[in-house]
Amino acid sequence: MNSIALLIILSGYLAVLFYIAHWAEKKGNSKWTNNPYVYTLSLAVYCTAWTYYGSIGVAADSGLSYLPIYLGPIIIAPSWILILRKIIRISRVNKISSIADFISLRYGNSRFLGAIVTVICLTGIIPYISLQLKAISETFHVVTKTATSSLILNDTTTYVAVALALFASYYGTRYVDASEKRKGIVTAVAMESVLKLVFFVIIGVYVTFFVFDGFDDIYQKASLLDHFKEKNTIGGLPQAINWFLLCVLSMFAIFLLPRQFQVSVIENNRENHINTAVWLFPLYLLLFNIFVYPIAWGGNILFDGKNVNSDTYSLLIPQLFDEKTLTVMVFLGGFSAAISMIVVSSIGLSTMITNNILIPYNLLGKLKSEDSVSSKSILNSRKIGIFSLIILSYFIYRFFGLDYNLVSIGLVAFVIISQLAPAFFGALFWRRGSRLGAVYSILVGFAICIYTLLIPYAIGISNSSSNFISEGFMGFHLLKPFQLFGLDYLQPVPHALFWSLLFNSVTYFAVSVSFKGNYRERNYAEMFVDINKYITNHEDAFIWKGTAYRNDIEKVLIRFLGEERTKRAMNIFNVKYNVDKNIELADARLIKFAENLLTGHIGTASARILISSVVKEEKITLPEVLKILEESKENIIINKKLTETSNELKEITAKLQNANASLMIKDKQKDEFLDTVTHELRTPITAIRAASEILHDDDEIPEELKKQFLQNIISESDRLNRLIDKILDLEKFETGKQTINPSKNNLVATVEKSIEPLQQLIRNKSITIHIESKDKINAYYDEDRIVQVVTNLLSNAIKFCPDSEGLITIQIIEKDNFIHTFVHDNGKGINPNDFEAIFEKFYQSTNQNIKKPVGSGLGLAICKQIIDHHKGKIWAQPSIKGACIVFTLPKNKNIEL
């Protein structure tokens, strides 16, 4: 492909990246930029050009050896729920901005330790950034079929490096507080992760199913090649140990690589995003590795006997078949994998350089003396740092060649970074770990790493003329760098990892046990190990003794935060801890609060030194620290219990308030009920008395009129009797005195029987009744009682139907072991808020067709008691028009709820 055309495509791609980053920054907390999927995809910055190209080269040259680097993260991912969540919490409450800050803070804000961690990271990562640039350059020339130019200005990678340096330095330093979230960078990296996976899967599918006829076809043809069997066996115990150590190496890398710490911890917006990452990230790695093997051995088949770089098979195969578009897509995927690593790594390293080397060892004097070191100058130093790191990496690639492949340099970087593991994980789980233990362990481990790996790589692994490699230091065979102390069955990288971590770990534990840390180390050890106890009010756990004034601390904060932000921060502190703003003296909580505010700007060590310069601290003995910590624990437990008791009291108060409100409603319903019952009782009694008086006082009353009065007396007496029966029925049901006599009956016949006495009322209102059911549906119930239920429901339906075109539908259906009966009318319906209340005593609907509620308010309450005694249920359900009451009855005698 033409170089100019590919450059135009690359320029367009970089422009899209700039746009996405700019859009994400403007969107802020949009769901498109702040979600668990963007977070998880940003973690895929782990998959660099090493994954995209190097894994194919390893698979082609040595079979399955590429797998351990991906198995480690997949195995360790479930532990993120506990370990990564703990790291995120510690980092969030302490405003940590890098792994160097994290380790130095745990060991007493050690400036020296922070600098050592920074140097270790720089040593491991800068050459690896150079390899990413080399990968971009080489693959560009593969795609364009051009030769590498010795002139810098003719090298495409020069312009790519400059563009990336500008992009990272601009979007990576948007905030002076390095612990702030860089949504633009994270969103751009997430998009690149999608593209590199999609393009890799596309080339995998193409090679597997279009160039070849599936996985079996590749396997059959590859098995005919020389050394296929030897390359594709795991081997015996020595090889298994090599695999195990490589898995351990990659487990450490997923936590400790600066780029991984940056995206997984610093850029984490919400802890619950981890819940998605624990399954989606391993799935991402699995998808990426499905087609590594087919592409690698497909390339071996197609280029058998040809001198080509196996790392570039994913480009050479589509190029062989003149698939230009596919070739460019694959190139863009590899380009994405490389630049995402370069950008994120350079941001993390720049923050470490500024906060752990430049400020503590250079600018701190100016900060103390109130010279002109502003937030802007700190931002500019980070911009320069990012730009310089990328350009430095470019010059290393240009002038030192880096003859090793992607995987070998990547593994070396992993081994160097893994020297932080004992100090890092000890910080999380071991209170006794000390600053001296961390410092000496890292230095010893790094020294072993230099001896067993870096020096041999610098000399050249295959350099047979080197006595150092072949015979050992000064001719001592036990000191051979690749067979240290006679251990001769490990490969160079696992060998270096084993010895360096062994000496590293032993030194860490031995020194930590032998030399106790100072009070601040022990203080932070407690806060790190038991972060869940101190997550809410972590300033309470900070131990400090001395004299400090709020005004002095505020002056320091104003220099970095500005007057308005400082004022707002102090107000938050005052409210959080109920502190009077007029108090002049500062306590330990304010010291810690101020250090946290400065940490994101200048790093943990510099923040401590700067705050210490304006306060007078007194030394505290270790026994005092332990006593204070014990008191702090007790206070936390007491506060927790008080909080729990307070919450319980709140719940009880809420329940009492609800109960009181319910009682008031019940009392109101009772009053309404008594008023209604009094009215209901008075009406028939008044009618009976009036008719009786007329019959008593007038002997000459006509016979016909006398019969009418006597009939009124009888009907009103019946009405009075029914009301009394209802009250007595309800009382019997509630006290358990009422019994039912269920038997097997035809429910359809029972419903028809219930309708018959109501026919006159139905005709009076011109209501249509429709029954939807089979002719016979048997259920197990007391027929008299169910007649009472149906009659009550129908009476209510009749009462609430409109004066014209009234419709009542009764539907009876079988569902499982119960018969469901639906009584539906087309009246005004029931308020959904009253669906449960209508079955309570004294309740009367206010949604009736007449002004005053009609009835005693006992009908549905009695219905509920009857249905409950039948082991059924009764409820109101939503209806498009009118009301719908449903009740269930068991089909058989032995049905239980």
Question: What descriptors fit this protein?
Answer:
single chain; 897 residues; 5-stranded mixed β-sheet; mainly alpha
Largest sheet: 5 strands, mixed
Number of strands: 9
**Can you tell me the overall shape?**
elongated
Radius of gyration: 41 Å
Proportion of residues in β-strands: 5-15%
Cross-sheet strand order for the largest sheet: 4-6-7-9-8
Q: Can you offer a commentary on this structure?
A:
- The chain has 897 residues and is mainly alpha-helical.
- The protein has 35 helices and nine strands.
- About 1% of the residues have low confidence.
Summarize the structure.
With 897 residues, the protein is mainly α.
Topology:
Layout: H1 3-27, H2 36-43, H3 49-62, H4 68-76, H5 83-94, H6 99-106, H7 111-144, H8 156-171, H9 183-211, H10 215-222, H11 228-231, H12 237-256, H13 258-266, H14 273-290, H15 292-302, H16 313-320, H17 324-368, H18 375-400, H19 406-417, H20 421-429, H21 435-459, H22 467-471, H23 492-514, H24 519-529, H25 531-534, E1 546-547, H26 550-561, H27 563-577, H28 588-602, H29 604-612, E2 616-617, H30 622-697, H31 703-735, E3 743-746, H32 747-755, H33 759-764, E4 767-772, E5 778-781, H34 783-800, E6 806-815, E7 818-825, H35 859-869, E8 874-876, E9 884-890
Parallel strand pairs: 4-6
Antiparallel strand pairs: 1-2, 3-5, 6-7, 7-9, 8-9
